[in-house]
Each structure stands twice: as structure tokens, then as C-alpha cells.
């Protein structure tokens, strides 16, 4: 059976049995958090459990590596919307150990694209159309530095509400242990003293 059919069959029973009722909440995060984290499958259930988050507690935005590279990209827009429209008050960037984006080789990814049937002409056109293909596919060497860089992009965004704490953490994908990299409250206190 196709995955799509499996999902649709399960969903029909889920709705008919009203299993959704245990997940009812509002669109506003109860704990007033917006979290940017990695799409790693190990974190799907582990991260919320390790942080004592229940359905409705936080806006969780996922991408490859929990990386924010563009101050006016989709991830940053989602953070801004969560802060202004959805009552979030704190931002957490949460990377993880053993991330697949660590040391990723952009040229290796391009080779896999070609191997899966993407035309070399398409790759050539993209490389010469202003898309920095290498940067777009690039990961990082250090998860800690990546988290710090993403925190800096959010913290220095001109549209970030003043006084918003932006934290950086790293989670272990097996144990759920959180390591604090950047304490957003400490940073706010230090900048207030200057």
C-alpha cells in the first residue's frame, strides 16, 4: 500500500473516532514561545517531551539544521508573525548534536541531484542566475557556532520587538539533554547596562 493511502485510511479513522479532541488548543502558544529547530526525525517527539511542551504550548518552526541565514527569509518571517500576531514573547533557536547539516558537502548534494535526474543544464542555469548554490546548500562545521549565528540574525533583526529574549540551545538527539549556548535574558541585561 502506498504511504499516502495508509495515511488517508488512518486519518479517516482518526477523525471518525474523534481522536483529535485530546489535541484541541488555540493558535496562540500557551507558553508564549517560538522555537526554531531542526527537522531531524529524532526530535519530532523527543524535543517537546524534553522541554515539557504539550500541544499548543509553542510555535515550532523546523528546517534543515535549525539554520537562519536570511534576515528576510521564510523562517524569520514566521518568527516575526509569531511575535506580533500570535502572542509569542521569547525565541529559542535549538540545534542538535549529530546534525546531518554538519559538514555537508554542497557539491555532493548537487551530484546526488544530477544522479536523481536533475539536468546539468538546470544546475548550470541556477549557478549563473544569481543563486549562490553553494551557500544555499551549505551546512556548518560547528552546531554551537551555527546556533550563535542564527541567534545573532534574530537578535539584530530590525523588526524584532525590543526586549525580546532570543535564546540558543543544543539538544542531544538521544537523551534530550539541553545545553544552553545563549541566554537571551543575560544578553538583554548586559545591553541594558551599556
UniProtKB/TrEMBL annotation:
Residues reported in the UniProt entry to bind Zn(2+): 38, 40, 96, 99
The entry's keywords: Metal-binding, Zinc
Top-rank lineage group of the source organism: Bacteria
Cofactor binding mode and count: Binds 1 zinc ion per subunit.
Pfam family, one: Pro_CA
Catalysed conversion reaction: hydrogencarbonate + H(+) = CO2 + H2O
Molecular function per GO: carbonate dehydratase activity; zinc ion binding
EC number: 4.2.1.1
CDD domains hit by this protein: beta_CA_cladeD (cd03379)
InterPro entries: Carbonic_anhydrase, Carbonic_anhydrase_sf
Cofactor: Zn(2+)
Gene3D superfamilies in the cross-refs: Carbonic anhydrase
Residues spanning the signal sequence: none
Family classification: Belongs to the beta-class carbonic anhydrase family.
UniProt-listed PANTHER family: CARBON DISULFIDE HYDROLASE, CARBONIC ANHYDRASE
The protein, known as: carbonic anhydrase
